[in-house]
Amino acid sequence: MPLDQFFSLGWLIALFIVLIWFWNSIYILKEWERGAVLRLGRMLPEAKGAGLRLVMWPIETLYRLPLRVVTLDVPPQDVITRDNVSAKVNAVCYFKVVDANRALREVENYLYATSQLAQTTLRSVCGQFELDEILSDREKVNAKLQIILDQDTDPWGIKVTKVEVKQVDIPETMQRAIARQAEAERERRAKVIHADGEFEASQKLADAARVLETQPAAIQLRYLQTLTEIGAEKNTTVVFPLPIDMLNAWMKGPPAPRS
Fold it and tell me: Rounded distance, CA 204 to CA 206, Å?
């Protein structure tokens, strides 16, 4: 083989090797991604940001980690509340990676680890509340879940932004018991409101009686007004007005004979 052909073939091989190295060394990171770099097995202190990045392959290896918020659906968990009621509770958890190096170094699979931690935390936290609190005061339950998960995932470089309890399934017998309780509560409120109305009406009638007692003519005027209201309608009612004074005299009876 001629010498010039040998050198040209060597340049082509070298160029081919350089192209392969360049292809494996260049990375384009998106805006929502960070690149954790390992150099001979040791992690670089700073993760690479978005844009065109060059690593020294095969000495360095880059791992992409997304920084966007991840929506994690926590499957239904069998829980027993503090008042010994069995229920199925599911939730949704929102979290994101805030430190790419720790998310890669501290945990093997941060998605799976966060999912398992959310399930166990949901069971333990719901067991600390009564059923009425879980149903009516979910903000308190959600806040406690978020605080516990955020503390436990912080060493992994994970930030839990929000946790929401979605649905609480309780046995049918308990649903009927809650319905009866709610119905009894509504009946109690109705009776109390009715009693309050009767009490206020009796007070008003007592006040009116005291006013009429001080003004005897007022009862006559009220009597005539009632007759006017009765006669305003077209009916067959026959009213015989009878003075109240005559009734009073009749009720008192005849005067006692003088001795």
Answer: 5
